[in-house]
Design a protein that fits this description.
There is one protein chain. The protein has about 280 residues and is of the alpha/beta class. It has two domains: about 110 residues, Nucleotidyltransferase, domain 5; about 160 residues, ATPase, nucleotide binding domain (Nucleotidyltransferase, domain 5, 2-Layer Sandwich). About 35% of the residues lie in helices and about 25% in strands. The radius of gyration is 19 Å and the shape is globular. This is Glucokinase.
């Protein structure tokens, strides 16, 4: 009998579920439900379970485990959230028994439920699905914030040589604030204004650069240099073989990538983007 895994990626405005074929290391089917992180516990659980049920389809009996990519801070072993900035209804709730109840009889009662940090699982998914996984990989998501995951031989690391506390780069201090302040969508907006005096979102600057506007192209070149300068100490300290960039800002990699030089560390945009955490959840 073919074995599948099921992944859930818990986001602030929606949840995505994916059925994964571990032999082919590919996503077979996905399902999504819109649900805000401010929703009550039962509403959140119902949306998660509905998405899981739709993605699993007729394969519920063939699942090896359900992996859940969830933001932190979160007790991955105990299955309890310590978040205070969002998902208020989850705080200090033992999620495994509650989620099993929401999943209902369609899923076997002994199905393992495994939690992982969403940024870690983005990085792990990119590592796991690669035809030639490197020994050391850093995954970074560039969006409204900055997420990061450090992968050493297929395991996420939250400490050790070259790893910031908790594996989190966003809070690393810089001369002007934190690393997140320099490497997110708002950072592109700030660079655009500083270099041109004009306002615009990252998407605006990307559109203008692809239309051949030199000023917009200069904004993205500056962002690429800023990114390289911010991440180089960490790729060097960790001995990273590869840096993978995800998140919406990374969809402009063609514009800023040429400015990102990190020595022997290969740099590439994500191959899977929003599917990567689902693949990482399968790899748990």
């Amino acid at each position: 009998m073919t074995t599948f895994t099921l992944g859930l990626d818990i986001g602030g405005s929606h949840v995505t579920a994916g059925l994964i074929d571990p032999a082919g290391r590919r996503v077979v089917r996905t399902a999504r439900r819109d649900v805000a992180h401010t929703a009550p516990l039962e509403t959140l659980l119902r949306a998660w379970a509905d998405a899981a049920r739709e993605a699993a389809g007729a394969q519920t009996a063939q699942l090896s485990h359900l992996g859940i990519a969830i933001p932190g801070p979160f007790d991955l072993t105990g299955g309890q959230s310590h978040m205070s900035h969002k998902f208020a209804a989850l705080r200090a709730v033992p999620l495994r028994p509650h989620l099993r109840r929401a999943l209902g009889p369609d899923f076997r009662p002994d199905l393992p439920l495994r939690f992982g940090n969403d940024a870690d699982l983005f990085a792990l998914g990119e590592w796991w699905a690669s035809p030639h996984p490197p020994e050391r990989l850093i995954g970074v998501t560039l969006g409204t914030g900055l997420g990061s995951g450090f992968i050493l031989r297929g395991a996420a690391r939250q400490d050790g040589p070259g790893v910031p506390p908790g594996g989190e780069l966003w809070s690393v201090p810089t001369a002007s604030g934190t690393l997140e302040d320099l490497l997110c969508g708002a950072a592109v907006t700030r660079l655009g204004h500083a270099l041109t005096g004009r306002q615009g979102s990252a998407a605006d600057w990307a559109g203008a650069a692809r239309q051949g506007q030199p000023a917009a192209q200069a904004v993205w070149a500056a962002f690429g240099t800023q990114l390289a300068d911010g991440l180089r100490p960490w790729t060097t300290a960790f001995g990273a073989d590869a840096l993978v960039l995800g998140g919406n800002v990374s969809r402009a990699f063609d514009l800023f990538g040429p400015a990102v030089t990190l020595g022997t560390c290969r740099v590439r945009p994500s191959e899977y983007f929003e599917l990567a955490p689902l693949l990482g959840a399968a790899a748990l």
